[in-house]
Amino acid sequence: MEDSGIIKLYFDRNEEAIPATAEKYGAYCMTVSKNILGNNEDAEECVNDTYLVAWNTIPPQIPKILSLFLGKITRNLSLNLYRKKNAEKRGGGEYDAVLDEIAEIVSGKENTEEDFERKELISAINSFLGILDEEKRSIFICRYWYFDSVEDIAERFGKKESSVYSSLERTLKKLRKYLAERGFEI
Amino acid sequence: MKKEEFIDLLEDIDEDYILKAHESQKKGKVISSKKWFALIAAIIILGAFATVVAAKPEYRIFFEETELESEKAYFVCSELEKFSSGDFSEDIKTVEKEIARQYRDYELYMSSFPGHWYRHFSSASEAKEFIGFEKFSVPEIGIPERDFCISAYGDSSGKISHIRAEFFYLDTENGYLGIQIFADALTENFEEDFFQSDILSEEEYQTVRETLNRKKTKFYIFDGEISQTGNRRTEMFFVKKGVLYYVNFAFSEEKTEKAEDIIQKVLKFY
């Protein structure tokens, strides 16, 4: 079913919207969630919660890109669940490994920035991503937005895992430098 | 900044970048492509067995029998005017280049299926100004505007064969009233004899009624109830100035009177 048809079901408050969403985007949401949580049971819980959030927010919201709308919800719910369940131990997904990589560029201090500064920071990150070539940018996003494993990324882009690690490391360092030059200490 | 905050911050990065990265994740999804081609093939084959159940000399709607999950169902088909590219604004012509680029850059398993371009607008007037197409028209609905989208479908050379405008309205104050208006225009590059836009179940088809307004526009209308919520819905198809319109009303009991007023307004406007 086309996205507009699925959105129409939500719009009509027709509960068929849920199975239609699951059929088209269930696997995608499961991938996003499982990458973070590392197990099927928790991922399924988050994906089911994603449908519930979609049901409660469409309308009034009308997603411009349904896949991304659902992906963001799933990512957010999965991160929250992971943090709740793994406050004191490491889980089986990619989350902890990603955090270890991120640790190289962040200060670890409490964030005191105002909301407007957050927007400026996102804008600066977007500018930085814009100057990367498409492959480096996609590798960065696959790792830090989708939490894809380095192994999967390497296979997908036809690279060795070591090349992916060094691409990510260089990109993170460049990002830190780029942001620092613009007055952002992250 | 803490690591977790940085991860959360990334949620809001440019959506185009996220989508582009997602395309790389689609590697290996052979079945979805096959399904897509099978669907196109099925539609072409079904087209060969079309049964015309209504007759008008030109620009008409008719229903074609088919099967949906082993049940009898009906395609909503229409013969529509085929407009020339000169009927649209210069802006829409730039879309041709973008569609051609989608095909040029297309990589099996790595890219979204090419040939579909769309853009959202902040108002109906902005959308209409972009498209510059006089024959797309919508009445003053009188409830809040929510979203407006123009879509174009084209081939590998960028030639656009079909343009769709979507208008969404929503009123949730003391009840629920949602209205969607879809307007489809074909161009001279659309090669099939008729256009299939929707599919009705046997039950829906049996309730379709025809209404002719004072401007001699023929409307095909059916009503129904949305299971679970009990909300009512009214859907209508009609052709005006060679363009196919589909209007969908979904409303709760409290909004019945308002919905019926707007339905009458639509019936008078076109």
What order do the helices and strands come in, and which of them pair?
The complex is a heterodimer of chains A (186) and B (270).
Chain A: H1 3-11, H2 17-37, H3 40-57, H4 66-85, H5 95-102, H6 115-131, H7 134-144, H8 150-157, H9 161-181
Helix pairs in contact in A: 1-2, 2-3, 2-4, 3-4, 7-9, 8-9
Chain B: H1 3-10, H2 15-25, H3 30-48, E1 61-68, E2 71-78, E3 82-83, H4 90-104, E4 116-121, H5 124-131, E5 145-154, E6 160-171, E7 177-187, E8 195-201, H6 202-206, E9 209-212, E10 218-225, E11 232-240, E12 243-251, H7 256-269
Parallel strand pairs in B: 3-7
Antiparallel strand pairs in B: 1-2, 2-8, 4-5, 5-6, 6-7, 7-12, 9-10, 10-11, 11-12
Features:
heterodimer, A: 186 residues, mainly alpha, Rna Polymerase Sigma Factor, Chain: A, Arc Repressor Mutant, subunit A, 2 domains, B: 270 residues, alpha+beta, 9-stranded mixed sheet, 3-stranded antiparallel sheet, 12 strands, 30% helix
General description of the model:
- The complex is a heterodimer of chains A (186) and B (270).
- With 186 residues, chain A is an all-alpha fold.
- Chain A folds into 2 domains: 3-85, Rna Polymerase Sigma Factor, Chain: A, CATH 1.10.1740; 96-181, Winged helix-like DNA-binding domain superfamily/Winged helix DNA-binding domain (Arc Repressor Mutant, subunit A).
- Chain A is 72% helix and 0% strand.
- Chain A contains 9 helices and no strands.
- Chain A has helices spanning 3-11, 17-37, 40-57, 66-85, 95-102, 115-131, 134-144, 150-157, 161-181.
- In chain A, helix 7 packs across helix 9 (161-181).
- The radius of gyration of chain A is 18 Å and the shape is globular.
- The termini of chain A are far apart.
- In chain B, strands 3, 4, 5, 6, 7, 9, 10, 11 and 12 form a 9-stranded mixed beta sheet that branches. Chain B has a 3-stranded antiparallel beta sheet with strand order 1-2-8.
- By secondary structure, chain B is α+β, with helices and mostly antiparallel strands.
- Chain B is built from 7 helices and 12 strands.
- Chain B starts with a helix and ends with a helix.
- Chain B has one domain (50-269).
- Classes of the chains: A mainly alpha (186), B alpha+beta (270).
- The interface between A and B is large, with 53 and 43 residues.
